[in-house]
Amino acid sequence: MSIHAHHHPGDDAMFPESQQHQLPIPISPPPPMVATTTSIDDGYKSSILRFVLLPSQVMLILLLEFLNSFRSFGLRFVMYNYITNEFGIEDVNAGKLLGIKGFVDIAFGLAGSILVDIYGVRKISIAALSVAIVGRTLLAFGRTKGALYLALFLFSPCGDALLSVGLYKVALKKLTTPSTRPLGFALSYSTFNLAGAIADILVDKMRAGLEDLSLDSHFVGVGGVYTPIRQFIVVTWLVVVLTWIIAYCFLEDWTVIDTNDPEEDDCIDEGSDIDIGMMSAKPMVRLHILRRWFPNFDQLIRREEDEMHHPQGDATTKCRAPNYKMYRTQYTRSTGGRTSLYTCITDIFSQIAALLQLRSTWRVLVFGFASSAIAMNWTFSEMIMPPFLERRFGESIPIYTIQSINLFGCLIFPPIVGAITSGREDFSVIMPGLWIMAISPMFVAMSPNVIGACAWQVFMTTGEVLWSPRQTSWTASLAPTGSEGLFFAISSARSVMGPLTDFVMGVINQTYNSNCPECRDQYGHFCEARLNEDENNLQCASAQESCNIVLDNNQQSCPKTCLECPTWEATDPSTCWYLLLLASLVTPMCIWFYLPFLRGNYDRDYKCYGILSCSKNRLFGICGASAEMNYMHNRDGGSQLYEHVDGQYIVNESNEIGGINSFENETELTQSPGLV
Q1: Which ranges constitute the DSSP H helices of 479-573?
Q2: Residues 108 and 237 in one domain
Q3: Which of 192, 414, 452, 503 could join 447 in a cystine, given CB atoms 3.0 to 4.6 angstroms apart?
Q4: Where are the bilayer-spanning segments (predicted)?
């Protein structure tokens, strides 16, 4: 069985020579575009209306995305401090452990991405959550390093990793249409950042408001001391259980199409099983509420019906109201397909080879690896900033609330930015965001304190909300239909850099932000309380036990931070942040260098995809400007490409630039039986 997938800009190998190198026809400069009467007005209101007309299954996916992100973010934020404070693991060894876990996660994540294309989102989600419950149980209630290793290297990869490779992105891609996808992924981006922000606030509230909880040993398997951090991990365990219940009861595999959208991904054969089983999609928001939100809703729909029954012009010039249809996503395994294991494995590798022949795949890979340097900001935020603030400024600092600045910003602004910039070319939005995020470490490097950390989070967030959601939408739009999971896995190949980065983070902490175990107890509490005092000595204690610290009476207080620990060696923390600044600047420079290739406007023969071109317009691209080409797209009247050549505008009637078709044309992508 074969399915339809987009042929994206740059996949020139599949075009016959007769379609390449057509001569452009010079014309006068294009006149300004004049707005035409449409059934749904252009702009952000159109984006919102089209989105809320999607079925309620979209909201279910966003709910699962929220719970899944709370589980994931909640553990990632506290993991480093958790294993160093409660299991007594040194910084370098902690980096090694998390690095090894990262490599194992990548392997299981790739397997999960392949399996989701075979078995579907529902089956993989339930299976992964079942295993994740076991792994999170060991993390929450285990007391030995053996239980920790078993959770990190076996159950967490088998469960958590399968849920972290875009599983719900595949579902969201199938439940949205090309016109609603940018806003859909912007909302998804906000949803998982909302979950992370709530996790940050909650863990800080628990650190500040809860005391250690001691359970007697007769509570088999769960007895012992529960610090606020461990109590928070128990909360994430409950969230995993709740997610499993919701997924088991409500999650289904659906695909939504808009029969009035000429850019629709799927092409359904009339009379096929899918066509027969197709049904109208019930909007997620009831009509009486829509009429309240959009006072002219009835007028718009009535106008659309009049135009369909009494057309007064070319049908292609009408911007029709969406007509959403939905059907159950077909998978070979779920419909009785039988293939041997060897055949499945062979077909999977054949599918990977087919995807690697698409230029769209390489465009996403190039962007992914180029952005791995700037992604270190997120790793610093999770693995460097929490111990940096806690060790230098004490346990009372609201570490995770400061971290939540980024998450709240990514919650509020992506939908706004997505709606405002939905009509702009992708990289004209991405490039400015990369530059802003790249220079953000400068603030904490110049001022290594709480204020500097807050300023870093603010500017990092400003850049992130511009480029990261748009890059996710751009990647999803390039994914071939039917192989989304595998495409997302290949496109996330930059994650192989993650384990190496984790190891480096451990070395950086050990070198520039070392711990002071002599002044902390086995649970990570500082020995800041006076246990007893006499004329000759002063002994310090933590909230749980006495410490082997005896100070002179002249000492004003017991150590509340590592800076006050008498055996701690001071280091310059600014150094690691300057290193992050230099590394971050590599990303926008690399993206600018490969920008013509990433945009897909040129073929290989034109100065190596346009990468080696040298012009004023090429220089302007450093900030995302697209002066090389004016893309005038009018959904009412079709699309035309205007090139500025030798001082005059040129229209390419074949809609090609440099011999490459610049629009997404349907082409057959042969699928293996196991991947349909």
Answers
A1: 484-491, 497-512
A2: yes
A3: 452
A4: 48-67, 148-171, 183-203, 232-251, 362-380, 400-421, 433-459, 577-597
Q: Which helix (H) or strand (E) holds 241?
A: helix 228-250
pLDDT in tens, 549-565: 877 766 567 899 999 99
Residue 431 near residue 591 (C-beta atoms within 8 A): yes
3-state secondary structure of 337: coil
Is 146 found in the same domain as 65?
Answer: yes
Does the reported pTM lie above 0.90? no
Query: Where is pLDDT greater, at 86 or 218?
Result: 86
Residue 302 structure tokens: 């009535």
Helix, strand, coil percentages (3-state) for the chain, rounded to 5, are 60, 10, 30
Q: Write down the residue that tokens 């016959």 correspond to.
A: 16
d(CA 211, CA 512): 31
Whole-number Å distance between alpha carbons of 348 and 278:
29
Do 102 and 216 belong together in one domain?
yes
My answer on whether 436 and 505 are in the same domain is yes
What token pair was written down for 599? 């945009």
Q: Show the domain range for 496.
A: 47-255+371-512
What's the rounded Cα separation, in Å, for the pair 595 and 628?
12
Q: Is 311 helix (H, G, I), strand (E, B) or coil?
A: coil
Tell me which range, 36-45, 215-224, 232-241, is most confidently predicted by mean pLDDT: 232-241
What is the C-alpha to C-alpha distance for residues 53 and 282, in angstroms, rounded to an integer? 8
What is the chain's alpha carbon radius of gyration, rounded to the nearest angstrom? Answer: 28
The token pair that represents 28 in the structure block = 């006068």
Cα 504 from Cα 501, distance rounded (Å) = 5
| Residue 187 contacts residue 61 (beta carbons within 8 Å) | no
What amino acid occupies position 384? I
When divided into structural domains, the chain yields a total of: 2
Q: Which residues does 183 contact at the CB level (< 8 Å), separation at least 6?
A: 47, 48, 51, 415, 418, 419, 422
CA 18 to the chain's CA centroid: 40
Residue 147 — φ and ψ, nearest 5°?
-65, -40
Residue 12 is classified by DSSP as: G
> Which of 396, 504, 500, 397 shows the shortest CA–CA distance to 91?
504
Which pair of structure tokens corresponds to residue 546? 């006495």
Please report whether residue 555 resides in a domain. yes
Contact 232, 203 (CB under 8 A): yes
Of 485, 512, 539, which residue is a domain's last?
A: 512
Taking CA atoms, 233 is separated from 150, 227, 386, in Å, by 16, 10, 17
Q: Residues 119, 86: one domain? A: yes
Q: Are strands 213-215 and 279-280 parallel, antiparallel or unpaired?
A: unpaired
Same domain, 233 and 157: yes
